[in-house]
Description:
Blueprint: E1 2-6, E2 23-25, H1 34-42, E3 53-58, E4 62-67, H2 76-81, H3 85-90, H4 94-108, E5 112-116, H5 122-130, H6 143-162
Helix pairs in contact: 5-6
Amino acid sequence: VLIVDWDLEAPGLEEFFKKKEIKLEGDERKLIGITDLLQARSKGEQINWQNGIMHANLPGNHRIDLLSAGKRDANYQHRVQHLDWNKLFYENNIGNYLNDLRSEWIAKYDYIFIDSRTGITDIGDICTVILPDVLIPILITNDQNLNGTKYILERVQKAHKKLTFNRN
């Protein structure tokens, strides 16, 4: 199992695995993550996503791998705020790069869970349109969340029809 923290603006998925009964191997302050992969791509560089994997060793000899939102050093916020999504998509071919990452993840893991920021953003579209085979919206049942989720799901269906690859 791989869990990817795509919530770049509010990272911290690894905190759920810093419990007494779980041994987390790796340090999000030192290891690369999604932001670092995107930043490298924008510079025409390539870094190996596997160099950012943390291991959550669970009771019963089970393991979950985690890929963080990015190296949480003093420059993390600056790096996230200066990601140029237009350049990434139109000049750096990020769509194909993400599809390649997705293929590598599928080859290595039985299940991949992606934690995404909510809302209508470039990040949201990556996590709802480009990456998933199955989209599992989690929400609180109130009118705002129900209507917002319905809107996102309709938006995903329309976007899937425009993709050059099949995600239906």
